[in-house]
Design a protein that fits this description.
Keywords: ATP-binding, Nucleotide-binding, Phosphoprotein, Transcription, Transcription regulation. This is Two component, sigma54 specific, transcriptional regulator, Fis family. Pfam families: AAA_lid_14, HTH_8, Response_reg, Sigma54_activat. There is one protein chain. The chain has 19 helices and 18 strands. It is of the alpha/beta class. It has 4 domains: 147 residues, Response regulator (Rossmann fold), CATH 3.40.50.2300; 170 residues, Rossmann fold, CATH 3.40.50; 77 residues, Helicase, Ruva Protein, domain 3 (Orthogonal Bundle), CATH 1.10.8.60; 51 residues, Homeodomain-like (Arc Repressor Mutant, subunit A), CATH 1.10.10. The strands form 6 sheets. Strands 2-1-3-6-7 form a 5-stranded parallel β-sheet, with helices on both faces. A 5-stranded parallel β-sheet has the order 9-12-15-8-16. The structure holds adenosine-5'-triphosphate. The site of adenosine-5'-triphosphate has 17 residues, from helix 8 and helix 16.
Length: 471
């Protein structure tokens, strides 16, 4: 039982009408007494909140799955369990949602336990009538702040600007200049380049330098989904569109409304989705899966590919009209082997990143190590370099990165000045060294097992390890 006083509604509608400063928040009332639910619902709706109701915990949990609820007002004694216990389950599943418990008169322990279980607060039915609306405002304020923090954290994690794109080479700077010029416009941009050349980093820098920087930047990798999943990911769906679609769901285009959508690996997008994308580009409209009414959005598109899209068009894999629509402004990102001059700066940057993470005191990169980096062909570009440095930092126990901490395929088996001490890549012994190292890796460094697998005596293995300087 909750309110018996009818003047309650009038007092609070008057008192708090002026305080309506938040977006419409959704409140779920879980109470088995219909009269109370209806009255509470009326009062809360009059305050401008969007209200949903449930008569028991099970129905309440279902409503939580379907609606984006900010605050739950929950009775303690419900036909299928206790609201105090349900608080725990709800907070586990929806940590941002706040819960206000309605406890029985004089039952403080319930309230205390509810707060221990994560409730925002509790009020005593009938006694604390005048507290419900102010408490609701406080709870919704906490929810909006939590949502804002989540959004800011997401933005911060993605905060790339042109200033922290590392590299001084002319070829990279030409790409940066072009990107800076186009950033402030609304033009669709196509970034091309091999894998790991920094296309996503550029896309984020363009977004952050644009007028849309305070809005969402949402990235999707078109090659990571099947056709149906990608359609759902991009455009969202209506409840009931397919088995399991219990509630309306926003797609990436809606999430990024007023912001930027980054379509990575656009060359992998199936042809019929390309038609839908063209429509978004031309009209700003699309149909959600299972919907008959178009949804309108305002997004800027930045696309990226490591394929030759022109060739994909010629081969019939990519729509020509879409190609011309997205390739308005193309920026190509150079592979790392074409900007060897940037390798040192990048290596120092990643060394700093990983020593900070691991608390190691490595502050130097040896000449040989750097030379080996410069001679490598870097098919995985900056991503590969980053991984190589991370590996070396893990393996290094001194203050300097040495060549022997590099993967074997990067180690130059001998430099010009100490050729006599090391092995030429053509010598049979170099193959033996690599093979022993591989078997040692396979056995996690277990020498007895390694010698057995190699079919040599353990003493021979030790001799060879010493001879080839295997670590
Ligand atoms: N100029 C740069 N300075 C520092 N880090 C960079 C730079 N460019 C790329 N990186 C880093 O290299 C990695 C690969 O970059 P990114 O994901 O942007 O490449 P990509 O071209 O989009 O790759 P893919 O085509 O495989 O999606 C990331 O970890 C990124 O942080």
């Amino acid at each position: 039982m909750f309110i018996s006083n009818n003047s309650f509604a009038n007092v609070f509608i008057f008192k708090f009408a002026v305080l309506k400063v938040f977006d419409v928040s959704k409140v779920l009332i879980i109470d088995d007494e219909e009269k109370i639910r209806t009255l509470l619902s009326k009062i809360i709706s009059l305050e401008g909140f969007d209200v949903v109701e449930a008569g028991d915990i099970k129905t309440g949990l279902k409503k939580l799955e379907i609606a984006d609820v900010d605050v739950v007002i929950c009775d303690v004694k419900l036909p299928d369990g206790s609201g105090v216990e349900a608080t725990k389950d709800i907070k586990d599943k929806y940590p941002v949602t706040e819960i206000i418990l309605l406890t029985a008169y004089g039952n403080i322990p319930d309230g205390v336990q509810a707060i221990k279980n994560g409730a925002f607060d509790y009020i005593t039915k009938g006694d604390d009538n005048n507290k419900i609306i102010p408490l609701l405002y406080k709870a919704t304020e906490k929810v909006s702040l939590a949502k804002r923090v989540l959004q800011l954290e997401r933005q911060l994690a993605n905060k790339y600007s042109f200033d922290n794109i590392i590299g001084k080479s002319k070829i990279l700077n030409a790409s940066i200049d072009a990107a800076k010029k186009v950033a402030g416009s609304e033009t669709t941009v196509l970034l091309t380049g091999e894998t790991g050349t920094g296309k996503e980093v550029f896309a984020q820098a363009i977004h952050n330098a644009s007028n849309r920087s305070k809005q969402n930047f949402v990235a999707v990798n078109c090659s990571a989904f099947s056709k149906d999943l990608l359609e759902n990911e991009l455009f969202g769906h209506k409840a009931g569109a397919f088995t399991g679609a219990v509630k309306d769901s926003k797609g990436i285009f809606e999430e990024a409304n007023h912001g930027t959508v980054f379509l990575d690996e656009i060359g992998e997008m199936p042809l019929d989705l390309q038609a839908k994308l063209l429509r978004v580009l031309e009209t700003g409209e699309f149909l959600k899966v299972g919907d008959s009414k178009p949804t309108k959005v305002n997004v800027r598109i930045i696309a990226a590919t490591n394929r030759n899209l022109q060739q994909e068009v010629e081969e019939g894999h990519f729509r020509e009209d879409l190609f011309y629509r997205i390739a308005v402004f193309q920026i190509s990102l150079p592979p790392l082997r074409e900007r060897v001059i940037d390798i040192e700066e990048l290596a120092i940057f990643f060394l700093r990143t990983f020593t900070n993470k691991t608390n190691k005191k490595i502050n130097k990169i040896s000449k040989n190590y750097l030379e080996a980096l410069k001679q490598h062909s870097w098919k995985g570009n900056i991503r590969e370099l980053k991984n190589v440095i991370e590996r070396s930092v893990i393996l290094t126990g001194t203050t300097e990165l040495e060549e022997d901490s590099l993967p074997l395929e990067l180690q130059r088996l001998g430099t010009l000045d100490n050729r006599e001490k090391t092995l030429s890549a053509f010598e049979l012994a170099s193959v033996e060294k690599v093979h022993i190292q591989k078997v040692l890796n396979y056995t996690n460094g277990n020498k007895t097992e390694t010698s057995k697998l190699l079919n040599i005596a353990l003493t021979t293995l030790y001799r060879k390890i010493d001879e080839y300087h295997i670590k």
